[in-house]
Design brief:
The protein contains 7 helices and 7 strands. By secondary structure, it is α/β, with parallel strands linked by helices. It has a single domain, classed as Rossmann fold (3-Layer(aba) Sandwich), CATH 3.40.50.360. It has a 5-stranded parallel beta sheet with strand order 2-1-3-6-7, with helices on both faces. Helix 1 packs across helix 7. The longest helix is centred in the last third of the chain and has 17 residues.
Length: 195
């Protein structure tokens, strides 16, 4: 069965990212695809320590934390939705740790530096990325979208769309912006229909 994994990286419960997630999941579910929401700030996920043990074990075998339980969910999901508020021109620390810990899906040829590949590639995987910002210009949005999009593309995902929400800060203020909520719902349906 096709599945979408939704990864939220906001520390603020019930905030703007959460409301967009609900609408994204609604669109995906109404299109007939099951989705699962994971809120990173509720979990204990350590940052990658660069030990390179995963080059041999093909999984992160050094750090024993909540990321261990997410790896199989990533493998089992054809679709991925990443959403992060903008923190200092970039994604949150939770999203950064999540993305860095996906490093274990890469295979490298020796000696290094040399070629590499992703075990998630060539499987028709697709993704959508979104960021939420109080800033009102795309320049002040910083690297948020690229910080999610580029690693996913390197891992073999086709990023089919992105959503940059500008000028919204107060908790839950997104609920007054029906256009953003509808966009999130449509993106959920679009991703569901493409996987």
């Amino acid at each position: 069965m096709k599945r979408i994994l939704i990864i939220g990286a906001s520390p603020r419960r019930g905030g703007n990212s959460d409301n967009l997630i609900k609408n994204f999941a609604k669109g995906a579910n109404e299109a007939g695809v099951e989705s699962e929401i994971i809120q990173l700030s509720k979990l204990n996920i350590s940052p990658c320590i660069g030990c390179e043990a995963c080059r041999k074990t093909k999984t992160c075998s050094t750090l024993k934390d909540d990321m261990t339980g997410i790896y199989q969910k990533i493998i089992d999901s054809q679709g991925l939705f990443l959403i992060s508020p903008v923190h200092n021109y970039n994604i949150t620390a939770w999203m950064k740790a999540f993305i860095d810990r996906m490093y274990c899906f890469y295979d490298f040829t020796e000696p290094r530096p040399n070629g590499w590949s992703s075990r998630l590639a060539n499987q028709g995987r697709k993704a959508v990325v979104a960021g939420v910002s109080e800033q009102i210009t795309k320049k002040d949005f910083g690297f948020t979208i690229e910080a999610m999009k580029m690693p996913l593309e390197a891992m073999g995902y086709e990023v089919i769309n992105e959503l940059a929400v500008l000028g919204i800060f107060d908790k839950g203020a997104i609920t007054k912006h029906e256009n953003y909520l509808r966009q999130a719902e449509k993106l959920g349906a679009d991703l569901a229909n493409l996987i």
